[in-house]
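for the writeup, i need someone to sanity check this before i put it in the appendix. the sequnce is what the collaborator sent (i think, or maybe the updated version? ugh). structure was predicted straight from it, no edits. if anything looks off just tell me and ill rerun, i have time this weekend
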Amino acid sequence: MLRGDEVTTSPGGGMVRALIRDGQPFYRCAVRPIDGIAWAPGTTTEAGRVTAVYGKTRASEDGPWVYGWTVFSHRRKLADGGYGPAIVHMAK
């Protein structure tokens, strides 16, 4: 069975992302966001779009910086082929 775009190596369920607590500071770095296709699980059906941003955070106030990608927003694919409004998951 084909999955996604046949190029992405993740077997499904999305790419690994950082887990950030509500209200935890996340500082975006000067790296362009990634806008990618969200695939329906185990299919070649596009479910929408996901925008990821790169940045840094700390697990504790004096802990080391942890860098990584996290989901900034997503848009659901509509029946007419367009996309719904962006659902934003963090402050700009």
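The mean pLDDT is 82. The CA atoms of residues 72 and 91 lie 9 Å apart.
thx in advance!!
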